[in-house]
Amino acid sequence: MMKTTKYLHIYNKLLKSSVEVTINNKKYRVEYSEKIWNKFSKSLHKFFADNLTYAITWHLPLVENKTVIYHFDHPVVEPLFFKLLMYSIPMSVYVFKNSSIISLLKSFYNANYITEFKSLNHFYFDYKQHNNLKESSLVLFSFGKDSLLTLGLIDEIGIKPVIMFMEEPHSKFENYHKAILVKRFKNEFTHLVDFFPVSFGHIRQNKGLYWGWDIILSQYILTLIPYCFYYRTKYIFLGNEQSCNSYSMHYSGFLINPVYEQSIKAMQLLQDIPKLFSIKTHVGSIIEPIHELFITFILHNRYSNLAKYQTSCFLDNYQAKKRRWCGICEKCARMYVFFRALQIDPASVGFPKMNMFNLNKKHLYSLFINNKETSAYGGSGLGRDEQLLAFYLSYKNGSRGDLINEYKKHFHMEAVRRKKELINTYFGIHSSITLPTGVRQKVLSIYKSEQKKVMKKFQFEIEEK
Fold first, then answer.
1. What is the DSSP string of 16-51?
2. C-beta separation of 40 from 225 below 8 A
3. What DSSP character marks residue 360?
4. Which of 260, 278, 398, 443 could disulfide-link to 127, CB 3.0 to 4.6 Å?
């Protein structure tokens, strides 16, 4: 039996336009502007507060080693989060040294088992007014290639974007650089980028532990429900590409998807969050059918006015203090080889003048070594084959450097042998399960048009399915 010596009491309270969460004696507020909050049905406020409070504090018994007692109704979102977490937590084995999947799951299972709620009286409501939705979409925006392409696509097919940047308190360098980008962005486009301060982000990192980051997309979607009411958005589009569905067998015998929350299976679960509030808002990803290399090509080939804002860097080390690409993380390395493969000048997106094909960058590429000291995705090795194709194209395009020589010596023959397979995979058009019926054909038509262009540019042949 799991023993804890203390209790963690969690309360919530509705204020004028915010939800106040009290954890023992510490208070945190999730705040909304009055115009947003006042459009959110009052009959749902308490129901929303209870579910949100649980969603942002689920990890605390793991961090504090205490039994959590919630002083409100059992939240209906709890079973949904439990499944998301059971499949998301194992990815931490790739970044936490000396951890096992069994120990990670056992910690969560036991902590969840002894968590208490003070009431079983669910809050029932009958709310049918929010059905007249507009052709608009919430877009979780980061200036990464996925969110930029999502914005470009929905603009082109006539969906009005509601752009949300979730401002995490621990992401100091990211917030700094992206605030600068937003100022430039506003001068060029009419789109408003709404910064939402994620106050509950302060709860995530504690005593050097990183519990709480596992399902942030789910937290964001729940947090933004009042925005769905205000804007009457028909969609919530996430930047989840085809590779988010990949998984591998860990040596311990567990199947692991290092980004499970971004997979099709997870998005099907996330559909239930708007439904809890009687909203018919669709949760999905408009870029689900394609992989990162193809995403990068389409963004820079079709939406060059957006592409120059791209920033795909962790932005969490001191090199990121003064530049929006640090040049020393796995994401910078991955994008650099993609740029070289697709004949895109890295300087066009503000990349620092450096050769990321030098030998001292070898540890950043999953083609050469599983990077087990950074992200779960880097540690999984699942990006290896896409990098194989990217190095092949970079070599054919005349790129030079120590790592091009390494590629030529150890991997070129494999790339030549598997060229057809790699091209069909990474420049192919795959599943479109989470694309809404009304937009699917428009989006797929754009992808097919861009596929013809990439075939012509690199003299590829794509097999018809």
1. SSEEEEEETTEEEEEE--HHHHHTS-GGGHHHHHHH
2. yes
3. G
4. 278
The shares of helix, strand and coil residues in the chain, as percent rounded to the nearest 5, are 50, 15, 35
Q: Give just the sign of the alpha carbon dihedral 122, 131, 222, 169.
A: negative
- Residue extents of the structural domains in the chain: 7-119, 292-465
The Cα 344–Cα 156 span in angstroms is 23
In angstroms, the CA 263 to CA 436 distance is 16
CB atoms within 10 A of CB 322: 11
Residue 75 is classified by DSSP as P
- Which residues have C-beta within 8 Å of that of residue 111, sequence separation ≥ 6? 2, 61, 62, 68
Q: What is the CA radius of gyration of the chain?
A: 23
The pairing of strands 255-256 and 116-119 is unpaired
Instruction: For 20-40, write each residue's pLDDT tens digit.
Output: 999 998 999 999 999 999 999
176 sits in which H/E element: helix 172-188
Instruction: Give 206's DSSP letter.
Output: B
Q: Which residues contact 325 (CB under 8 A, 6 or more apart)?
A: 311, 313, 332, 349, 350, 351, 352
Q: What is the distance between the alpha carbons of residues 279 and 299, in angstroms, rounded to a whole number?
A: 31
CA distance 164 to 227: 10
Judge contact between 214 and 88, C-beta under 8 A: yes
**Other Cβ atoms within 10 Å of 279 Cβ, number:** 21
Q: Is 114 exposed, middle or buried (0-12, 13-18, 19+ CB in 10 A)?
A: middle
pLDDT of residue 131: 66
Contacts of 27 (CB under 8 A, 6+ apart): 20, 21
pLDDT, one tens digit per residue, over 93-113 is 877 766 789 988 998 999 999
| Length of the chain as a residue count | 465
For residue 224, which of 141, 153, 135, 150 has the smallest C-alpha distance?
141
Q: Is 372 helix (H, G, I), strand (E, B) or coil?
A: coil
